[in-house]
Amino acid sequence: MNPDDDLPPGDNLPPTDAAAALRLIQDQQVATARRLEPDARLVYWPWGVAWLVGFGLLFLRFSPDDRVLLRLPDWLPLTALFALLVLAGAVQAVASARAYGQVTGDSSRRGIWYGCSWALGQVSVYAALGRVTEYLPPDLATLLWSATAVGLTGALHMAGGAIWLDRDLFRLGVWISVINLAGTFAGPGWHALVIAVAGGGGILVAGTLASLRQRHQP
């Protein structure tokens, strides 16, 4: 007995039409690409929330002209910011590992090297800042930490966009760099507000748009 006898005619046969075969190939390519692409929401949104909440707390505690809009322990805003950034990095790492775990070759090496540049770049910058900021007033020390970290993030986003020819990632890096400059010139307190609203909000918007594009891929 043929095991395919119970199937409706044509269900167990390859497409006989060239156009149908091409559509089948394209559908398989799209399905594979989606499986190998991390969910944009898990890549962008954790960082957006971290910036919105973390820098928002910095603004509320260390507002311009030494004002305090929300009484918090001095250590809390920076501690919360760093904790949220670590959590965001962990979420992105897990999402990327699940998506790219089956990818080998040049793409895999680019991703690994790019991730190493993030880790080593941040550690190097923070180590240098730790030796300098103790000689600065608290408001300027906070501004130096924030502006340097955000500036490094913008530069690495642009580098990632150049590596993968990703216009959206490059544009986000440009946006982060521009608002970082604006906030730095505005001064202590204002920088945190600019980065919280325009930076964190911008990342959330970028993640939303990228997620919509993923859903509506042809």
Helix-strand blueprint:
Blueprint: H1 18-35, H2 40-61, H3 76-100, H4 106-132, H5 138-164, H6 167-186, H7 190-215
Helix pairs in contact: 2-3, 2-7, 4-5, 5-6, 6-7
C-alpha end-to-end distance:
41 Å
Characterize the largest beta sheet: strand count, sense, and whether it forms a barrel.
none
Please state roughly what percent of the residues sit in beta strands, choosing from under 5%, 5-15%, 15-25%, 25-35%, 35-45% or over 45%: under 5%
What average pLDDT do the residues reach?
83
Number of strands: 0
Total helix count? 7
Give the helix level as a range of percent. Answer: over 70%
Could you say how many structural domains there are in total?
1
SS content category: mainly alpha
Q: What value does the Rg take, in angstroms?
A: 23 Å
The SSE order reads HHHHHHH
Which shape, going by the Cα principal axes? Answer: elongated
Q: Would you identify the regions where 5 or more consecutive residues have pLDDT less than 50?
A: none
